[in-house]
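User: Just a sanity check before I run the rest of the batch. Below are the C-alpha cells for the first item. I only need the designed sequence back.
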C-alpha cells in the first residue's frame, strides 16, 4: 500500500473531502468550491496536489476554465485504506 499518500490525504480534511467528492463523479473546481464553501484558490491547490500524486486526473487539461476532474484508481485505493482507519477526534493531532 502507498502509505505516504494515505498519510498525505489523511492529514487534510479538505484533501479527503475533495477526493471523496470526485469519487462520486467528475467536478470542476468551481463546483467543489461552492459545495464546500471554500475559496477556489484552496480547491485549486488541493486539486494540483492530488493530481501531482496521481490520485486524480484532469479530463480537460488544455482548458483555462471549467476543467473537469475525476478520481483515479490509485485515488480510489487510497480512499479504501482511509475507510479502514479509525476516525480522528477533536483532540487528535492535525
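Assistant: Here's the designed sequence for the first item:
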Amino acid at each position: 500500500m502507498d502509505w505516504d499518500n494515505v498519510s498525505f490525504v489523511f492529514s487534510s480534511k479538505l484533501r479527503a473531502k475533495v477526493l471523496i467528492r470526485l469519487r462520486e463523479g467528475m467536478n470542476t473546481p468551481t463546483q467543489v468550491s461552492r459545495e464546500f464553501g471554500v475559496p477556489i484558490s484552496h480547491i485549486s491547490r488541493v486539486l494540483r496536489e492530488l493530481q501531482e500524486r496521481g490520485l486524480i486526473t484532469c479530463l480537460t487539461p488544455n482548458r483555462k476554465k471549467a476543467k473537469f476532474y475525476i478520481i483515479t484508481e490509485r485515488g480510489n485505493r487510497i480512499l479504501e485504506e482511509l475507510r479502514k482507519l479509525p476516525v480522528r477526534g477533536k483532540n487528535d493531532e492535525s
